[in-house]
Amino acid sequence: DKYYPQLSIGSTRTKMSNTNYTSRNHAIVGTNTHAVYHRYPQRRPILFNRADKNMFQQMKAAVHDNANPFLGISFNEKEEVFLIWKFCNRGTLQDIIYNDQIAMDTKFHGAFIKDIISGLEYLHASPIGYHGSLTPWSCLIDRNWMVKLTDYGVAEPIERWEKQQSISVDDLKNDEDKGNAKQKTSALYDAPEMLKMREKNKSRRVDQDWQRQTILRRQLGDIYAFGMIMYEIIYRALPFPDSQDITELVEAVKDGSRVIKPSIQDHKLLHTDLVSLVQDCWHATPEMRPSLRRIKLNVETYLKVKGSLVDQMMRMMEQYANNLEKLVQERTGMLEDANIRADKLLSQLLPAYVARELKEGKPVPPKTFSSSSVMFSDIVAFGDMCRDASAAEIVNLLNTIFNGFDEFIARREAYKVETIGDAYMFVSGVPEENGFRHVTSICSIALDIHNFLLEYRAPHSSSLRVSCRLGVCSGPVAAAVVGLNAPRYCLFGDTVNMASRMESTGAPGKTQIAESTKKMLDQIQSYQFSEIFLSNEF
């Protein structure tokens, strides 16, 4: 009577969530056999009849995935009786149900319920014939998350030995022993007709043999207990109001004089057919309770049970692996596309050989080119345009102009070095040497630019005319990558300086070339020139 003193159903749930019953009665039998045992104080010697011997032999021979192996019984020694079963390291189903740290979804519900049904099917079809004391703590969970039914077949001899005062069930040494032997709430899982017959049996001097209760009646008692456990698995609570005092409830149920029927507290979590199924399991008339076949069919239909929890996990892992493989392929394709775009962008910012060396983490040493042509361009009166237009309009203006320049460069052997504001710098003969073709490439681009600007109209003002000053110089240059975090390909040398000066001192709509460039063009004789004089001061 000390186990649930003045506790409501709700507070009992909290107490059970902090309790692990199996670990308390764990022992190692022999060399390396892990076992869980139930201990009963023994008052008198126990004598086995033929039925007891047959039952324990049948229990010992029971082999099924959902039946926990019975290892044996120790009796008539040290005034204690031990029932020994194989140990399952994940504890009891009660431990799982009331552990708030474990999230139980429909896969857990379906797998646990299916395992219990499978275990009951085996026991009901075996020579044992029934379970007899089905509770959440008689359902052990092994390492593979499979339910193993334990404590089957022992209800009849335990009750008889208790009536004969050979053992004590209620007067155990402490609450820890009571945890796995016979919890006070055990009566809640007993069918009403079984409780009523048990109380009558205790009042008789002559023992009423359990064999007079047909196997079918005891199997129907298992169905009642199964309905209780199924409710607990899905709702993680007992099928009684949370405000119900557990001590009063248990005493009223054990008395057997009045039937306190469990009820479903919330119908929303269950399909209507499953609600009817659970309620039928609790039917006061045993013969009206559903068969295991009907239970199994409904559970498989509405809980979508396919195999054990491990099987479902394996299917989930297989599906996850397939989805992951598909996702990897998609992401790999996206990565390849991103790499292509990044390489394309990088090739526009840096020469191909420079980008390749930088991607491989190699340093790019400076390089000297003996012959090249450098051009600078600058938009005339760009400052006035900025004053008369918005920032967005200026950006749009530069984009349309420079996109045209980029097209001219792409058609010829030239490379865009950089743009700064309205200034545009490009080169031919760098980074790939092309003999003396660089001078014709640069000059042809200059003519393309002038022709393009003659017909160009600003997007924001059709009356606005745009012209450029261009400056060209041919000669040797040095090229190098400057910067690590934001590397830039830069050109150095007198040729670059002279090209810049040619642009800054040139006339609008004209291309001013240095003498070195003219000497190369004279050999081609395809261009017309006019001569001006510039100071050598820079």
Automatic annotation (TrEMBL):
Q: Which residues form the Protein kinase domain?
A: 1-303
Task: Specify whether Lyase is a keyword of the entry.
Answer: yes
Q: What EC designation does it have? A: 4.6.1.2
Could you name the Gene Ontology cellular component terms for this entry? neuron projection; plasma membrane
Where does this one sit in the cell?
Cell membrane
Q: Does the keyword GTP-binding apply?
A: yes
Name of this protein:
guanylate cyclase
Species name for this entry? Pristionchus fissidentatus
